[in-house]
Design goal:
By secondary structure, the chain is an alpha/beta fold. The protein has a seven-stranded mixed sheet with strand order 2-1-3-4-5-6-7, with helices on both faces. α6 links the parallel β6 and β7. α7 runs antiparallel to α8 and α12 crosses α13. It binds 1,4-dihydronicotinamide adenine dinucleotide and 1,3-dihydroxyacetonephosphate. The site of 1,3-dihydroxyacetonephosphate (13P) has 13 residues, from α7, α9 and α10.
Length: 317
């Protein structure tokens, strides 16, 4: 039986995709979709194509803008309008600072009748651009939409899994950026393998604590978008968030690091939102709190390490 007859999302034929956001990740995803022979148009605010031109006829709209661009871009897409059947995919890893909600929640609020799919995983774009294999996760309130996006992007070099916890998938990719800054500090100070293992393990505990408070499933954080992305970004100098931490450990001021950084380090804004949220709800996230103080220039990297090591002793849970 042809499974396409059962699904509102036919999978075997090339489709028209509009990618909004022409940064490195948007371009990499365009390449992956192009490899599958989909027709891809990229809209970026400095490009020649207008947004209505990019969106025309697209059955999948993928947002790859950085967090600060999500709200303005959602509004622009709303002004253009979308066909009811268009599936929205978001790959942004961040938190909205005013509403303290995720990018997919912003898209869903603006397009309540549309299927919104989150795509996140250990996906350092430079490695994927070199043709190296990678895996990722897609998740949605609408499982059929997630399966369709899985089929659209799956290839011999990009293995796509589905997951039924979109919030957990999105928060995994977002929260690990804060720990990637901490990991960069740890490596920049040459604190060793034991310290790094402790940092990542306790960091994952903090991700689960805050993520489950938000309503995500704990097990999602042990998957590709949680532990997987944590391992990738906390161990790779290709990660911009890791680079920020590494250079903070060399006592460089944040403004100077950001001046030379290629692309966006979302963990910086995420840290601020996260720590505010954790304080409001009395959720202990000591590592993220030290990252926040460090980013604000209130403590030195060595003081952050001391503060963490000298916390009250307690059970591991
Ligand atoms: N680069 C990577 O390896 C990965 C990145 N991500 C996430 O994807 C998102 C994008 O990342 P990158 O492409 O690396 O960042 P980038 O900094 O290279 O690109 C960001 C894009 O957003 C656009 N943008 C920002 N504000 C805008 C606005 N107001 N209106 C229109 N466009 C706006 C910029 O023009 C730029 O094209 C981030 O949230 C990042 O965490 C996720 C997985 C992998
Ligand atoms: O999220 C990423 C890989 O999955 C990219 O990490 P950075 O944003 O820290 O470069």
């Amino acid at each position: 039986m042809n499974s396409n007859l059962l699904s509102p999302f036919p999978s075997d034929t090339p489709i028209a995709i509009a990618i909004v956001g022409g940064g490195v990740w948007g371009q990499t995803l365009a390449q992956l979709a192009g490899d599958r022979h989909h027709q891809v148009k990229i809209w970026s605010r400095r490009g020649d194509l207008t947004l209505p031109e990019a969106l025309a006829g697209a059955s999948l709209v993928l947002s790859a803008v950085s967090m600060k661009g999500v709200k303005p871009v959602v509004e622009q897409v709303q002004a253009c309008g979308l066909e009811p059947s268009t599936v929205i995919v978001t790959v942004t890893k961040g938190l909205d600072p005013s509403d303290r909600i995720t990018p997919s929640q912003l898209w869903q609020q603006a397009f309540p009748q549309h299927s919104v799919v989150v795509l996140a995983g250990p996906n350092l774009s430079k490695e994927i651009n070199q043709g190296l294999p990678a895996a990722t996760t897609v998740a949605s309130q609408n499982p059929q939409a997630a399966q369709w996006v899985q089929q659209v992007f799956s290839s011999s070099r990009f293995r796509v899994y589905t997951n039924d916890d979109p919030l957990g998938v999105e928060l995994g990719g977002t929260l690990k950026n804060v720990l990637a800054i901490a990991a960069g500090v740890c490596d920049g100070l040459h604190l060793g393998t034991n310290a790094k293992a402790a940092l990542l393990t306790r960091g994952l505990t903090e991700m689960i604590r805050i993520g489950t408070h938000w309503g995500a499933k704990p097990e999602t954080f042990y998957g590709l978008s949680g532990l997987g992305d944590l391992l990738a970004t906390c161990n790779s100098p290709l990660s911009r968030n890791y680079q920020v931490g590494y250079q903070l450990a060399q006592e460089k001021p944040l403004w100077e690091i950001l001046d030379h950084l290629e692309g966006t380090a979302e963990g910086i804004n995420t840290t601020e939102v996260l720590v505010q949220l954790a304080q409001t709800h009395h959720i202990p996230i000591p590592i993220c709190t030290q990252v926040d103080l460090l980013l604000q220039g209130k403590i030195s990297p060595h003081q952050a390490v001391h503060a963490l090591m000298l916390r009250d002793i307690k059970p591991e849970s």
